[in-house]
Structure formats: C-alpha cells, structure tokens
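Here is a typical sample entry:
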Amino acid sequence: MHQRIIVRLELSPRARKWLQNTRETRGMTQIAMMSRLLEWYGKQPHMIRVLIMGQVKSIFVCKRSGLHLIPHAACAKTSRTFLPAA
C-alpha cells in the first residue's frame, strides 16, 4: 500500500457539491477522488497548471493542428476563439 499524507481542505459550497456529485457518480471515496485529481494536476505542464489556476489571461484558439494559446492582448484580432480564460 502506498504511503498517505493527510491534508485538510476547505472547499466552497459549489466545489463541495461538485465533488459529492462526481464521487457518487463514479463510485469513489472523497480521498480517492481528490488524490487522483491532485496527481493529474501535478502531471500537467507548467503552462496548463498556470491556466487552471487563473494566473494568466490567455485564450485557446482552434486551429487544424490543435489548440493554441494566444496572449490576451491578441484576443481582439482572433475570430475563431471558443474558450476564454478565467
């Protein structure tokens, strides 16, 4: 069995509701759910983690080769945006 470290989290009511609904749907415990989410987050590239945390104002632009980040100042010049950053 893997070693575990206990961490206390404070969640907003909205986040708590999402966690409860998702874990019930998936049949997982809160511990398993949060552990997997944090492990996934930790494996993401730095730029993705920064975007998830809302630390950069950028947008995603759909192009044939995939998703691209465009600096916030360039947003007005792009007409094919579909997901604004928080």
User: Anything to note?
Assistant: Residues 78-86 have pLDDT under 50 and may be disordered.
